[in-house]
Each structure stands twice: as structure tokens, then as C-alpha cells.
């Protein structure tokens, strides 16, 4: 009997050691989290990890930083992994969620979203792409979107006492600024993200789903009105009609000192000031104006969602991490630390003290994302919207070019039809 008791004690001790049991009989599990480079500072991650592990005694975080380059193929590969070694939580771009959710590779987090995470106040541009049919697969984490960065001194010189709040005011003010060798606005001809906002404001879309089939929609009357506004605004500067905002980089153009406005994320102002220190203190921000003063214009809103692979070895532990990251405490802290827009409209006040981020948050409340289909990546790969914009700005018939571009979009979104 004594030998048997000793044997049992030894077996029990071996099991405790192998399972990683903590004092008191609790098993500590490791949750592997993939986050993208520069999404959160090292100090933020250190503080979050310490707080999470203090309040979740049975869990340990293993946060691994990933590079954006090549991430799509890498995430696709781990979502196929059934070995138990794949990450439990992954940060993905908001518009990438449909690509990963296809085929049931992500956990459905609808219940947690409704019960615990306040989905009714999420930013639409983050929540929408994370939803497929009746399931919520991507959980909004943070957002960023374009605002108007402007020269306060040039506005003052032109007699403009406050930023415009409507599109018509914007056109009138930009016309005043477009004089004396200065460009009223630098807007490249192929800035299709900015065009998207104008189209959405008119009630149009880049593509629409009808009878379970996606079709290009640039040729709708509403979308054509959005393109016409873009044409009128773009003409009040000397932006190249055959290039996008990165060719040449618009920060450098603005830094040269002869541009009154650009449309960009607020963080670009830091690059501008680095290139031209004389502009320090002269830059301001306002939301892209809407059709009326009642609300800012609709803007493309990017950012990140958090997803849980369907093959995670512990969905309960994974959702605990997601819940902590997207909860008000740490989501607000992330927004303040990184100058992001928080994931909920109700948290916008947390960044109200920062002019650029406050302007961004006002726009994000009306934010939208690209069509929620895995095939949209194919559209962007050889983007017919850019060619369409250039042709119209060169004088081609908008309706004809819109039909041509819409047909190309339809072909990419429904290749087998």
C-alpha cells in the first residue's frame, strides 16, 4: 500500500509539472497574439501585458510582432494550421477580414460582441468588414482616416476666418487660396480613397451586391456626382492627374511651402514639419466637409480588427485577450498613446484634446470601408478606379468611363459569372 501511495504521489507531481500548474492548483495557459509592427508602442504592450496577467492569473501572453509586408500569405497559412501551434489572436487590417473569414477559418464572436463588447457603438467602417452574413468575425480595435491638413497662415492671408463646414464653402475657400502662385489644394488625380468618400456622401458605392452578386457601381448617378465634385476640387490646384498621392509623396509637395491644403491622415504633418521646420505651428486640421454643415463628409476609414482563428486551442482564453484590448480602458489608452481613433463613437471624447485626432474622430463617425468581399483585393491589385479618374480629369466623358471601369470591377468581383 505504501509503495502504491508513493507511486500515486509521483504521478500526480509529474502531471502538475507537465501541465504548468501554478501554486494553488491553477493551470497557466499561454495565449499567443500576433500584432502588427507600430500598431502599439513597446511601452503600451508592456503595461497592457502586466495588467492582463495580473487580472488573469491563469493566462500568460506571448505577443509576437509581425511585418505588414507579406502578412496576407502568412495569416492565410496559419489559419490552415491544425497543429495547435497557430496564434490565438491576430491583428488584421479591417478590410482584410472578409479575405480571412472565407471558408469558416475564423471564430464567430457574435455572442461576445452583443453581450460584452458594445457592438452597437462600434465605428461602422471597422465593424462592417468584420461581419459576414449573421456572424461577427472581426472585432474593431482602432481606426485612422483622412482629414484636411491646412496652412493657418495662408487661410488668414486669404481672409478665411474658420475652416469650411460644407462642400460649397470648401470650394469657395479653396478658390480664394488658389492664387498668387499658391495651390488652393494639392490633390492627385488618382486619390481614389478620397473619391470614395465623395461617392458615399452622394449615396453611391464603388460596388453593390445584388442577388448575391457583386457589381461595379461607378456609373450610378450618385457615383457620377461624387466624381464631378472631385473634378471641381482637384482643379483648384496642380496635382498630377495621372498619379496618386504617393507619386510624388504629397508630404514633400506640401512641405515646399506653396500648398494651402492636402487630404491626409494627421500623422503626415510630422513628416511635413521634419522636411520644413518653418511650418511648425502653422498647420491645422479639419474634417473633410460634408454636403451640409450638419455632419462631416464620409471618409474611407482604415484601421485594424482583431480576429480569433477557428483552430485556436482555447477560444475562451483568446476572447479574454480580445475583450481586454478592445475594452474602453485599453482602447482609449491606445488611442491616446498612438493618436488613433478609438473603436467606439462613444469614446471620441478621449482624444478631443488633440486637434488632428479630434478631426479624424469626427470623420470616422461617418466612416466607410471598401466592399466587404474577399475579391476586393483583386480589384485593388490592378485598380480600374485610378484609370477612370485620370481619364475623366483629362476630359473624357465621365459616364462612358464609369461604365468601362464598373465592368472591370464586376469582372474582378464575379470572375466565374
Overall mean confidence score, pLDDT: 91
Counting DSSP H or I runs of 4 or more residues, the number of helices is 18
Q: Which structural class do you get from the secondary structure elements?
A: alpha+beta
Number of β-strand runs: 15
Q: Summarize the biggest pleated sheet.
A: 6 strands, mixed
Termini Cα gap: 75 Å
Question: Judging from the principal axes of the Cα atoms, what is the shape?
Answer: globular
Residues in β-strands, percent: 15-25%
Strand and helix map with partners:
Layout: H1 2-19, E1 21-22, E2 26-27, E3 29-36, H2 42-55, E4 59-66, H3 71-79, E5 89-93, H4 97-101, H5 110-115, H6 124-127, E6 131-132, E7 135-136, E8 139-145, E9 147-151, H7 152-157, H8 167-177, H9 192-201, E10 207-210, E11 213-216, H10 221-234, H11 250-255, E12 261-264, H12 268-275, E13 283-286, E14 301-307, H13 315-326, H14 328-338, E15 341-342, H15 355-364, H16 376-381, H17 384-393, H18 398-413
Parallel strand pairs: 3-4, 3-5
Antiparallel strand pairs: 1-2, 5-14, 6-7, 8-14, 8-15, 9-12, 9-13, 10-11
Amino acid at each position: 500500500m505504501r509503495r502504491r501511495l508513493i507511486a500515486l504521489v509521483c504521478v500526480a507531481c509529474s502531471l502538475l509539472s507537465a501541465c504548468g500548474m501554478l501554486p494553488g492548483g491553477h493551470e497557466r495557459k499561454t495565449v499567443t497574439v500576433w500584432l502588427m509592427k507600430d500598431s502599439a508602442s513597446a511601452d503600451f504592450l508592456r503595461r497592457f501585458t502586466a495588467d492582463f496577467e495580473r487580472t488573469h492569473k491563469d493566462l500568460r501572453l506571448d505577443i509576437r510582432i509581425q511585418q505588414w509586408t507579406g502578412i496576407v500569405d502568412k495569416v492565410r497559412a496559419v489559419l490552415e494550421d491544425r497543429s495547435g501551434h497557430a496564434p490565438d489572436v491576430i491583428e488584421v487590417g479591417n478590410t482584410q477580414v472578409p479575405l480571412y473569414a472565407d471558408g469558416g477559418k475564423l471564430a464567430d464572436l457574435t455572442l461576445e460582441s452583443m453581450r460584452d463588447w458594445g457592438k452597437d457603438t462600434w465605428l461602422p467602417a471597422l465593424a462592417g468588414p468584420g461581419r459576414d452574413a449573421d456572424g461577427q468575425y472581426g472585432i474593431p480595435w482602432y481606426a485612422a482616416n483622412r482629414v484636411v491638413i491646412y496652412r493657418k497662415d495662408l487661410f488668414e492671408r486669404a481672409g478665411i476666418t474658420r475652416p469650411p463646414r460644407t462642400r460649397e464653402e470648401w470650394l469657395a475657400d479653396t478658390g480664394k487660396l488658389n492664387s498668387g502662385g499658391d495651390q488652393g489644394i494639392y490633390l492627385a488625380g488618382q486619390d481614389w480613397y478620397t473619391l470614395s468618400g465623395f461617392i458615399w456622401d452622394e449615396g453611391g458605392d464603388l460596388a453593390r451586391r445584388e442577388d448575391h452578386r457583386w457589381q461595379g457601381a461607378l456609373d450610378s448617378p450618385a457615383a457620377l456626382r461624387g466624381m464631378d465634385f472631385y473634378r471641381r476640387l482637384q482643379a483648384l490646384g496642380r496635382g498630377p492627374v495621372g498619379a496618386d498621392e504617393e507619386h510624388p509623396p504629397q508630404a514633400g509637395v506640401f512641405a515646399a511651402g506653396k500648398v494651402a491644403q492636402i487630404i491626409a491622415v494627421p500623422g503626415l504633418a510630422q513628416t511635413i514639419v521634419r522636411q520644413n521646420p518653418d511650418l511648425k505651428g502653422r498647420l491645422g486640421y479639419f474634417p473633410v466637409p460634408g454636403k451640409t454643415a450638419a455632419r462631416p463628409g464620409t471618409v474611407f476609414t482604415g484601421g485594424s480588427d482583431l480576429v480569433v482563428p477557428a483552430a485556436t486551442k482555447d477560444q475562451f482564453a483568446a476572447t479574454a485577450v480580445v475583450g481586454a484590448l478592445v475594452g474602453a480602458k485599453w482602447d482609449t489608452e491606445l488611442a491616446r498613446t498612438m493618436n488613433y481613433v478609438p473603436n467606439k463613437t462613444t469614446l471620441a471624447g478621449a482624444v478631443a484634446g488633440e486637434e488632428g485626432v479630434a478631426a479624424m474622430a469626427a470623420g470616422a463617425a461617418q466612416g466607410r470601408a471598401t466592399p466587404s468581399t474577399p475579391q476586393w483585393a483583386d480589384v485593388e491589385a490592378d485598380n480600374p478606379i485610378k484609370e477612370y479618374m485620370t481619364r475623366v480629369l483629362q476630359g473624357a466623358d465621365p459616364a462612358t468611363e464609369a461604365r468601362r471601369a464598373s465592368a472591370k470591377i464586376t469582372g474582378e468581383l464575379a470572375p466565374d459569372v
